[in-house]
Amino acid sequence: MRVEDALRLAAEADLDLVEVAPMAKPPVAKLMDFGKFKYEAALKAREARKNQVNTVIKEIKLRPKIDPHDYGTKKGHVERFLKGGDKVKVTIMFRGREQSRPELGFRLLQRLAEDVIELGTVESAPKQDGRNMIMVLGPTKKKSEAMAEQRRARTAAPASDADQAQDVSTETAAEPTAPEAETTEPAT
Question: Residue 89's closest CA among 142, 138, 144?
Answer without folding.
Answer: 138
